[in-house]
Each structure stands twice: as structure tokens, then as C-alpha cells.
């Protein structure tokens, strides 16, 4: 999608602090972190919302939590715990319409989120 911020990051048209990349997934530090570690994990292919995931996307979308767990382990907070979040549409808090997983760690989280 030509106007998608995350597509532009994946295509290196917009700079980001990239912390992980493979053929299907890109992960980068959030520019407005809500925790000591706050990483966004995105598929390189454009899927606007969780509602737009198709059967053929299952393996790709399943790769996001796999990458989140590996990054949490690398950064040393997997055993203590961490939060992963995916928002969907406006009322769900989605602001960039390209699915993405937030990986947050390095502090204790409360519920509701805060």
C-alpha cells in the first residue's frame, strides 16, 4: 500500500531502528515507547487489520508471536514476563492500518493496561 507507514518502513523508504528482520517479518523500536522495551513486529506484506487476515495468512501471522518470544528471550525478560498486544480498528486502538504486534517488557504491567 503506497500510503502505509509500516510498508514504507519495510521498504526502507522511512528510517526505523530495526532490531530484527527475516524474509517475512520486520521488528523495530517504537518511537513512543510505553515500556523500557517496546518493539513493533510487522509482517512485510500488507494486511490492514486483524479482520483482513485470510486463511493463507495464518503461517505469516503466527510468525509474529514466535518472533516476539525470541526477542523477549534475547533481551532477557522472557522469564520475568512481558506483554504482547494487537489492536484492531479505531475502537480497538489501532492507529496504523497494517497489522502489528507490540512487544513490551522490562517492567511490571497491570490490568487494565497502564
Automatic annotation (TrEMBL):
Active-site residues from the entry: 100 (tele-amp-histidine intermediate)
Residue ranges occupied by any HIT domain in the UniProt entry: 5-114
Xref: Pfam families: HIT (PF01230)
Molecular function terms from GO: catalytic activity
Positions of short motif Histidine triad motif: 98-102
CDD domains, A to Z: PKCI_related
PANTHER family, per the entry: HISTIDINE TRIAD HIT PROTEIN
Name listed for the protein in its UniProt record: Histidine triad nucleotide-binding protein
Organism this protein belongs to: Billgrantia tianxiuensis
Amino acid at each position: 500500500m503506497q500510503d502505509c507507514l509500516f510498508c514504507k518502513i519495510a521498504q526502507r523508504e522511512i528510517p526505523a531502528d530495526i532490531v530484527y528482520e527475516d524474509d517475512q517479518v520486520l521488528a523495530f523500536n517504537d518511537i513512543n515507547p510505553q515500556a523500557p522495551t517496546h518493539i513493533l513486529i510487522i509482517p512485510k506484506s500488507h494486511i490492514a487489520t486483524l479482520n483482513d487476515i485470510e486463511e493463507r495468512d495464518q503461517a505469516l501471522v503466527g510468525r509474529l508471536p514466535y518472533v516476539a518470544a525470541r526477542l523477549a528471550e534475547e533481551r532477557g525478560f522472557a522469564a520475568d514476563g512481558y506483554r504482547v498486544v494487537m489492536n484492531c480498528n479505531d475502537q480497538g486502538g489501532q492507529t496504523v492500518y497494517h497489522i502489528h504486534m507490540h512487544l513490551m517488557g522490562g517492567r511490571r504491567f497491570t490490568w487494565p493496561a497502564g
